[in-house]
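Chapter review: from sequence to fold.
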Amino acid sequence: MRTLPEIPATTHEAALFIGRFQPLHNGHLVLLRQALATAPRVIVVLGSSFQARTPKNPFTWEERAELIRLAVGEADAARIQFLPLRDFYDETRWVAAVKAGVARLLATAEDRKAPSIALIGHFKDATSSYLRRFEPWQLIAAERAPGTPDAQQVRDALFASAELASADDRRAALGALTAVLPHSTLAFLRSWISLPFFNALAAEWAALKRYHEAWSQAPYAPVFVTVDAVVQCAEHVLLIRRAHPPGVGLWAVPGGFIEQRETAYQSTLRELAEETHLHLLDTTMQQALKASAVLDHPDRSQRGRTITHAHHFDLGDRELPEVCADDDAQSVAWVPIADLTSMEDQFHDDHFHMLDHFLGLTKGE
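The token string follows.
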């Protein structure tokens, strides 16, 4: 592996390392040890926290924190603090949340200048540009070492093992990851694949794999356009449980793909009617439309690059209209808005954040 640049003597009080660690691999561990060599305290920001288990985010933030503790050993683990953060799918808001969380962890009762912080990271691709947004923290950028694994490849190998007949065969197949994972991570995965939810996640992974393969021969990388309806009424919001992968059984707002001869607004009303049988007068829906937004974060959907036109309707304090699940919905329900934050880890893709965008669910946090 390529030797990392020497770390000059510093007076940094803390080093910061940001990642998703889905799961922790040797590339992560190299940078983590660099952070530990830089400052007496290390803060690890765990991205994609509080989400439902999916093929892209199979491990909870608590599991990922434990993987890090196991890999660095007891003495170094005692120097690490963890900051679990949701993604927000809004870089400006996410950067502000990182800064606020770090300030909270490093706060002391003494009135003194802000602590000196080093940010450890490397520029993987365009998505790493956020590393430049943390001034005045010192950015220590490391090059990606040859042979450093990609977490997606690790997850692919993990879920592909589900196709093997026995649990012993699955655990043996993971041996191919010995060169890219810490021993503690590999041992964790061999036990983790025996947990009850693994087969369901593997089935979702296989469905997504077929979906991506179906579009792999397109002359250009596909960009999908969808619509979504956030319908509010009497302090409730209309949600469905998804009937098909990805996200089977997870909560979502009603929506789907835009049709060729429809406007985004027309497709929104059609998908809403098809999935929930909410039938109100056109004038009622027009008057209830409060806002719309284009949500286009590149990572918002497991399907691939998907841009959605989300519409927020507020029906006021009227009696909750009757609804009935159909089409792509397993079930449908009017859910109290006050309950949504406790359901964050039960939502499909970025749908909790879509609700947050219009309803301000996390505004006070």
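Two observations follow directly from the output. DSSP finds eleven helices and twelve strands in the chain. The radius of gyration is 23 Å.
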